[in-house]
From TrEMBL:
Naturally occurring in which organism (per UniProt): Salvia divinorum
Superkingdom of this protein's organism: Eukaryota
Protein name as catalogued: Glutaredoxin-C9-like
Record keywords, A-Z: Cytoplasm, Redox-active center
UniProt keyword annotation of Cytoplasm present: yes
Length: 107
């Protein structure tokens, strides 16, 4: 079972998939974010990390100017935000068009 997520692996994953969710293993908000994304028709790639590896990822993301907030959502190859951003854009009816533009939705 893979536990570490190197910055190269994260970069590759984010570039290959339209929507990526990176989270702590067992975090209930990961389920919420995944279900909200699925609700609008996206199929996010989800990568859960063991607690011990979250700090490593946080340091690497900070170097890239991204504040660690798990679950971290990446859309269209870029950091999008966390749970609050997903909910806010869903409520504002901005999430579906954004996901469509990123190629995460077919319709």
């Amino acid at each position: 079972m893979r536990q570490r997520l190197s910055t190269a692996e994260l970069r590759s994953m984010v570039e290959e998939k339209a929507v990526v969710v990176v989270a702590r293993r067992g975090c209930c908000m990961t389920y919420v974010v995944r279900r909200l994304l699925q609700y609008v028709g996206a199929d996010p790639a989800v990568r859960e990390l063991e607690e011990a590896h979250v700090d490593d990822l946080g340091r690497h993301l900070a170097e890239a100017g991204v504040m660690l907030q798990l679950p971290a959502v990446f859309v269209g190859g870029r950091w999008f935000g966390g749970t609050d951003r997903v909910i806010a854009t869903l409520v504002a009816e901005e999430l579906r068009p954004l996901l469509k533009k990123a190629g995460a939705l077919w319709l």
